């Protein structure tokens, strides 16, 4: 599960992926773009689209600038009922190649609404390409593949 | 004064004498009305959107969908003809097609292997002549007298429509000349799918049908749009109503932005986000057409919407999933002659709409807010007089609820509610 990955590197990547999830869970969305490289691609799509090779998903950014716009928009422009996420991550399968480290991590996200309803909101996998910038991991690409094609109510926070 | 009513309910529906400017909240939560709508609207004299023609390009292709709550499968047979069938076995009523889409020579019900051709005609069944001469169907059993129940279908400009009403005029005459022309403008070229997803919204289907036609809210609720100056009510735009009022097109043209005084006075929150996008390439657009229209949304009664948001083309439709739940489907499209740059732009601008749409994600919750706000107030009514009380086309302003009044005009007609 860790071809060509030093144990120290695996540890750093696992900590990094966990910190990403905790930042979102804690509402520190302004920190979210910082987990990516400048020109990273971030996409949320469905398994159906992904397997059919269709390019258009549900949420798409192709730079850190667009990610910042997303966060600014949801902070100041978008209207939605307050809610929080709680991510649960699986252990990551890692492999190394010339373009960096690829990682696959399963996730479930429970969404809690202000009326107290805690419900399964999203389940799927992260398909990541991770590079080390001065030894620190950064996402060069994160494809969030949802198992379901169906979103309950709306999706505003990144996953 | 007469007060419109539907009597078939255990408690007759009383509609205020003001007509389409007053909407009884009971319409959004009464299960009896919901049931009556299934019969009078979805299984009645309308053309329901079923699927895209590109969902079933080849002989043997099938795609499942719904008309109201009824499961439907759309097929293409070996001769290329499109069929609409109730996805229900003639034997015990089980679903015949289980997969959402696929390709098959025959359709076989998994329960007892009743097998149909792609036109729904029964071709065979297991143990028809029994086992070792025992059992089997009675002597007079006639395959030709059993089939999957067909509905009428018609393909118009890449859209497959279906109706339960054998007497419906053509789709084109149902749409009328103006609506037909606008659909052709958008869809009369070879198309392909770019991606799709769906969304569960927790509201009655009619609240979404209203929302699709609500040009008044567009720049008030959806503040991302306005603050980046993509679209505002003070831009050149208008509403075109179909002759029978229940379909419409709302459009806007990109115009020199001009700070309207009403916005400043109203202190609408769309003014607060005045920074520029860090990634402005999101909104790069080219003129797709020479009519200057940059944004359009078209609603076709009962379940279809087609929009162009800058260069993002999408066919959306919905299926009622109970009196207070609706599934909304988003099918994003490209033209076959798009180059790579155009495809990339359409993919990028898919961000503006859908379940996570920067511009319109609020629609995922706003109709639920009405559903929840009106709970327990079935004897009260909505007030729909913005832009006047009429149901006529308007090129003056999109600060109007005319298309909503149009929806209710059609609704009252088809449900048999006359003033
Ligand atoms: Fe909206």
Would you write up a description of this structure?
The complex is a heterodimer of chains A (159) and B (419). Chain A is α+β, with helices and mostly antiparallel strands and 159 residues long. Chain A has a single domain (2-146), classed as Nuclear Transport Factor 2, Chain: A (Roll), CATH 3.10.450.50. Chain A is 24% helix and 45% strand. Chain A has 3 helices and 9 strands, in the order E-H-E-H-E-H-E-E-E-E-E-E. The longest helix of chain A is centred in the N-terminal third of the chain and has 19 residues, at 7-25. Chain B has 419 residues and is α+β, with helices and mostly antiparallel strands. Chain B has 2 domains: 55-152, Rieske [2Fe-2S] iron-sulphur domain (Rieske Iron-sulfur Protein); 188-415, Naphthalene 1,2-dioxygenase Alpha Subunit, Chain A, domain 1, CATH 3.90.380. Chain B is 21% helix and 27% strand. Chain B contains 9 helices and 21 strands. Chain B has helices at residues 31-42, 171-187, 205-212, 218-221, 223-227, 261-266, 340-349, 363-373, 402-415, and strands at 4-6, 13-15, 22-24, 48-52, 61-67, 70-76, 82-86, 101-103, 107-108, 115-116, 122-124, 150-156, 159-163, 191-201, 237-241, 248-253, 293-300, 304-309, 312-320, 326-335, 381-383. A 7-stranded antiparallel sheet of chain B has the order 4-13-12-7-6-5-8, with no helix packed on it. Chain B is globular, with a radius of gyration of 23 Å. Chain B starts with a strand and ends with a helix. The chains are: A alpha+beta (159), B alpha+beta (419). The interface between A and B is large, with 36 and 40 residues. The structure holds fe (ii) ion (FE2).
Count every helix of chain A, treating DSSP H or I runs of 4 or more residues as helices.
3
Give the CATH H-level superfamily of the largest domain in chain B: Naphthalene 1,2-dioxygenase Alpha Subunit, Chain A, domain 1
Order of strands side by side in the largest beta sheet of chain B?
4-13-12-7-6-5-8
Radius of gyration of chain A: 15 Å
Percent range for helical residues of chain A?
Answer: 10-25%
What is the gyration radius of chain B calculated from CA atoms? 23 Å
Q: Tell me which protein chains meet in the greatest interface and how many residues each side has.
A: A-B, 36 and 40 residues
Oligomer: heterodimer
- Largest sheet geometry of chain A: 8 strands, mixed
Helicity of chain B, as a percent range: 10-25%
Taken together, the total number of domains of chain B comes to 2
Derived from helix and strand composition plus strand pairing, the structural class of chain A reads alpha+beta
What average pLDDT do the residues of chain B reach?
91
Give the domain tally of chain A: 1
- What is the chain-wise order of helices and strands of chain A? EHEHEHEEEEEE
Question: Per CATH, which architecture of the largest domain in chain B?
Answer: Alpha-Beta Complex
Rounded to the nearest angstrom, the distance between the terminal CA atoms of chain A is: 24 Å
Note the beta-strand portion of chain B: 25-35%
Shape of chain A: globular
């Amino acid at each position: 599960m860790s071809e060509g990955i030093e144990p120290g590197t695996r540890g750093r990547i696992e900590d990094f992926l966990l910190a990403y999830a905790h930042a979102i869970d804690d509402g520190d969305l302004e920190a979210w773009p910082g987990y990516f490289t400048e020109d990273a691609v971030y996409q949320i799509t469905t398994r159906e689209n992904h397997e059919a090779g269709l390019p258009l998903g549900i949420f798409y950014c192709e730079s850190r600038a667009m990610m910042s716009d997303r966060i600014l928009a949801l902070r100041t422009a978008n209207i939605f009922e307050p809610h929080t996420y709680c991510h649960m991550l699986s252990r990551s399968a890692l492999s190394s190649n010339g373009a960096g480290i690829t990682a696959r991590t399963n996730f479930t996200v429970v969404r809690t609404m202000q009326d107290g309803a805690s419900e399964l909101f999203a389940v799927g996998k992260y398909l990541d390409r991770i590079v080390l910038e001065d030894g620190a991991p950064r996402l060069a690409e994160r494809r969030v593949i949802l198992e379901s094609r169906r979103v309950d109510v709306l999706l505003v926070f990144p996953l | 004064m007469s007060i419109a009513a539907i009597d078939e309910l255990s408690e007759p529906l009383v509609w205020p004498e003001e007509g389409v400017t007053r909407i009884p909240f009971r319409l959004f939560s009464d299960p009896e009305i919901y049931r009556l709508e299934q019969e009078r609207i979805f299984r009645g004299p309308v053309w329901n959107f079923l699927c895209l023609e590109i969902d079933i390009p080849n002989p043997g292709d099938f795609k499942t969908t719904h008309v109201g709550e009824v499961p439907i499968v759309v097929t293409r047979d070996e001769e290329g003809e499109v069929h609409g069938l109730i996805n229900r076995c003639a034997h015990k009523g089980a679903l015949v097609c289980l997969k959402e889409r696929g390709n098959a020579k025959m359709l076989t019900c998994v329960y007892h292997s009743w097998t149909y051709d792609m036109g729904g005609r029964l071709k065979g069944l297991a143990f028809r002549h029994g086992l070792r001469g025992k059992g089997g169907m009675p002597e007079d059993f006639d395959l030709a007298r059993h089939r999957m129940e067909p509905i009428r279908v018609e393909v118009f400009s890449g859209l497959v429509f279906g109706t339960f009403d054998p007497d419906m005029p053509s789709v084109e005459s149902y749409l009328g000349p103006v609506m037909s022309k606008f659909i052709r403008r958008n869809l009369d070229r070879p198309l392909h799918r770019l991606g799709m997803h769906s969304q569960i919204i927790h509201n009655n289907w009619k609240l979404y049908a209203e929302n699709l036609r609500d040009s008044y809210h567009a720049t008030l609720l959806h503040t991302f749009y306005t603050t980046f100056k993509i679209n505002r009510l003070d831009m050149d735009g208008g509403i075109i109503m179909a002759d029978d009022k229940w379909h419409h097109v709302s459009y806007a043209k990109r115009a020199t932005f001009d700070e309207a005084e009403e916005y400043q006075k109203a202190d609408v929150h769309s003014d607060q986000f005045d920074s520029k996008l860090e990634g402005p390439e999101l909104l790069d657009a080219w003129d797709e057409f020479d009519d200057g229209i940059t944004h359009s949304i078209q609603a076709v009664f009962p379940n279809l919407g087609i929009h162009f948001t800058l260069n993002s083309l999408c066919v959306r439709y919905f299926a009622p999933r109970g009196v207070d739940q609706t599934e909304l489907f988003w099918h994003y499209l490209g033209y076959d002659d798009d180059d790579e740059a155009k495809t990339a732009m359409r993919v990028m601008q898919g961000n503006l709409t859908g379940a996570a749409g920067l511009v319109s994600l609020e629609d995922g919750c706003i109709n639920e807010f009405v559903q929840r706000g009106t709970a327990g107030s079935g004897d009260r009514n909505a007030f729909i007089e913005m832009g006047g009380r009429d149901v006529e086309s308007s090129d003056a302003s999109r600060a109007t609820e005319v298309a909503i009044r149009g929806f209710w005009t059609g609704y009252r007609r088809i449900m048999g509610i006359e003033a």
